[in-house]
Amino acid sequence: MRYERLGDSSLNVPALILGCGNFGGIGSSPELFGHGDDKNTAFALLDHALTLGITMFDTANSYGGGRSEEWLGQWAADRGVRDNTILTTKVRNPVGPQPQDSGLSRRHIHEQIDTSLRRLRTDRIDLYLAHAPDPSTPIEETISAFDELIQAGKILHYGLSNFTGDTIEQTATTADRLGAAGPANLQCGYNLLDRAAATDAFDACSRHTIGLTPYSPLAGGWLTGKYRADQPFPEGSRMTLRPDWYGHLSNDATFTILKNLENAAAERDLSLPTMALAWALTDPAVTALVIGARSPQQLTGMCAALDVPLTPPERATITRIADGQPG
């Protein structure tokens, strides 16, 4: 494993971060609470991640209806590893049925940080993310709330998730104007089949020294080769549980691109997922990737991408293939 400083924060993070969004559910969707990984599977993944040098774990207050935070906190306490790990959690998505049960208001942030600290069995969160923008709350209020948590020692840094270039710029410049801490991190989707963030958010992150940690580097399983033309989606896959996330990829053009990408990977003696992860890891804008492995074996396989030093010309060739052009 290799480690890098996250933006201008004090955090040295591993190149691969274990996403815990499948613990006790599938993300924040209430209808899928109880699906995903059970506690034993979650603990086995966490144990194996640590042996691989993965020391950063990403969750959210809404994942699995709170189970993800609870299990991560129990694991860290049982193993006695809290001081050797970096914990990231998030606030914004609904955690109840009422309007006040979501958002980035000062009241909601202060309420939810205490709930997250209790579930995670810790006295501080290393990195606290706004899960998505909240147009109903002035950005000044949100930034001030995060800054108050830093001053109180409840969080070390805060960051943003699913923010556009404009909203990143607004957050960073407003924090500077207020004399408050600025965001240290951006999480956003980024992979060979979805590179929109590169033309929108990357420049804003660079201007403000914000570390970039993309999620879904395998496009919800599309870049693993498990989805095939004219074949049913595998039972329990993202496309059977949450087809709205990646359903737009289910077309002939995508399957042709995937076949060409598989050929490009084979020419390099790589599997498709290893090449796709290596492509993202070797992007100079990327600090680390958030990965959602479902088994220790899968997690080990993902680490193989760390040993693939794709050159800029190779990345450009692979990108052209993903665009449907000749390699």
UniProtKB/TrEMBL annotation:
Which Pfam families has this protein been placed in? Aldo_ket_red (PF00248)
Q: Which InterPro entries match?
A: AKR, AKR_Detox_Biosynth, NAD(P)_OxRdtase_dom_sf, NADP_OxRdtase_dom
- For the NADP-dependent oxidoreductase domain, which residue ranges apply? 35-321
- Keyword Kinase listed? The answer is no
- State which residue ranges cross the membrane: none
Q: Which Gene3D superfamilies match?
A: NADP-dependent oxidoreductase domain (3.20.20.100)
The UniProt record lists the keyword NADP: no
GO cellular component terms, A-Z: cytosol
Q: Which UniProt keywords apply?
A: Oxidoreductase
Q: Name one GO molecular function term.
A: oxidoreductase activity
The name on file for this protein is: Predicted oxidoreductase
* Species: Streptosporangium subroseum
Per the UniProt record, the lineage of the source organism begins with:
Bacteria, Bacillati, Actinomycetota, Actinomycetes, Streptosporangiales
